[in-house]
Amino acid sequence: MQDIIYLLICFGGVFLLTQVFGKKRNAVVRTAGGILDRVLIWWSDKDPLTVRDLLNGGIAIFGRTGSGKTSSSGKCLARGIVGLPGTGGLILAAKPEDIDDWKAIFAEAGRSRDLLVFGGTDLRCNFLDYIRQMGWDAREMAKMLMVIGEGLNSNDSKGGEDSDFWEKQQFRMIYFACLTVQLAYGKVSATNLQKFVSGAARTAAQVGDAAWSKTFHPETIRLALNNVKTQRDKHDLEQATEYNLRELPALADRTRSSIETGVFGILHVYCTGAVHDLVSTTTNCSPDDTLRGKFILVNLAPSDTGDLGLFVGGGFKYLTQRLILKRKAEGNDPPHVIWADEAQTRVTSYDSHYLAQCRSHRGCMIYLSQSIHSYYSALGGEKGKHQADALLTNFAAGKVFHALGDVQTAEWAAGMIGKSLQTFVGGSMAPQEEPWGELMGNSKYTGSYSQHYEQILQPNTFLNGLRTGGEENGLICDCIVIRSGKAFASGDNWLLTYFSQK
Q1: Which terminus of the chain has a lower count of CB atoms within 10 Å, N or C?
Q2: Is 118 helix (H, G, I), strand (E, B) or coil?
Q3: Counting Cβ atoms within 10 Å, is residue 455 exposed (0-12), middle (13-18) or buried (19+)?
Q4: Rounded Cα–Cα distance for residues 92 and 75 (Å)
């Protein structure tokens, strides 16, 4: 009897393991080791992706258009993240139809109430008021606007040899405007910023003009001077006043116009249309909600809304990143995820800085894009290329490659897998010296072999042969996953696997 009970227990254990590691390879699995050891998805039957793994920066997914990256591995990963109770984050929509896909994922997880849709609803978030309420200063406001400006491509000199100079000059103009307006009125609005910058004196003679002295710009400076309460504010305002009343009017027209082009490009978008309504009026939704188990879906796809989607999404992303880096995560605090499909439309120079530090704050990012070139072109110039490389390096949880469309990304992927010592066999046939030997089939074969390091996978592997889903492939999408610092069960740093589009 005892033997029968023992066999039943063993059979039950085997059956349970089969269910967990076999049929449910992409299900969220509970473990006894706390939230960090929870399994989100399975790369293979023997290779789980845990929360601890995900928090190594996050995951970058690559694949040409139609490769299935969004509908297979992306969808599976989204289900795993949303299926983990308590998770929160920011989702930046890439296509108008994304909202339906995300609603289905949240409904499947029983978390429909945890999805806050920003755009096309009554949700609002005043970015500048949010920064002020968080206790951040005028420099933080200026930094946010500059990062948003990267996404808008408002800097015409972006990527040029002198791009750093123009970026610093634009930052100074915005910073001094934010500082002066905040001291004058106790808060900063986009409309007041635009009025202050556009109303600045054009010449030294105008500064002394009686009519100009009654306009918004000098009046704001006078109010700020009257409201100074600390030595720091007094010192900073003196710098701002010197800049606006002496340095700026003395600039050459061409130099000043180059600076103002980028600044007005940002402020014009901020102060007009739906952008003003959504992020410059009131606040009933903010990045704080993402720390309360909510996901904010910015339902403003740039392909459909243009600068509106770029501005609102860029602002939300930067503010969320800053919030997470100030978060003190501990215990069983759930992970925080920033998700962006068509990530090349959302990437900024701040992303690499964020990924380098977010792990200890339990933050991570999921970026989906076609190629490394999409990141290079988005950030621009040689400096942007290095920023893109730094960003992609920190997606240490895994880089997923579906069928690619360009050789350079394929070579980059093959290079990350590395090389191995391989043996190559060769030989040659020497000509016969006598006709009799040739007639009898006597050969003079000389064998040879050599060893050298060769790429484990050739770039062609990433370009051809990977299934891309659809009915003809049984809704299966192949991919190659590469990660560093932690080998797969095979002992390699790469894994050929697949995901279903179901």
Answers
A1: N
A2: strand
A3: middle
A4: 15
Quick check: pTM over 0.85?
yes
Per-position b or e across 102-127, b if 16+ CB within 10 A of its CB: beebbeebebeebbbbbbeeebbbbb
What is each CA distance from 423 to 106, 113, 419, 429, 491, in whole angstroms? 52, 59, 13, 21, 20
Please tell me the distance from the alpha carbon of residue 363 to that of residue 407, in angstroms, as a whole number.
32
Nearest to 374 by CA among 63, 54, 59: 63
The answer to whether 140 and 318 are in contact (CB under 8 A) is no
Per-residue confidence (pLDDT) for residue 488, from 0 to 100: 95
- Residue 203 CB: number of other CB atoms within 10 A? 12
- Tokens 């978060």, located at residue: 327
In Å, how far are 14, 485, 486, 487, 497 from 482, measured between CA atoms? 30, 10, 10, 9, 11
For 297, the enclosing helix (H) or strand (E) is: strand 295-298
Which residues are paired to 332 by β-bridges?
Answer: none
Would you state the torsion angle of the CA atoms of residues 388, 393, 394, 398, taken in this order, to the nearest 10 degrees?
Answer: 120
Closest CA relative to residue 375, chosen from 399, 359, 358: 399
Structure token pair of residue 306 = 């243009």
Pairing of strands 398-401, 39-44: unpaired
Of 439, 418, 443, give the one whose Cα is nearest residue 428: 443
Q: pLDDT digit string (tens) for 47-95?
A: 999 999 999 999 999 999 999 999 999 999 999 999 999 999 999 999 9
Asked whether 393 and 366 are in contact (CB, 8 A), the reply is no
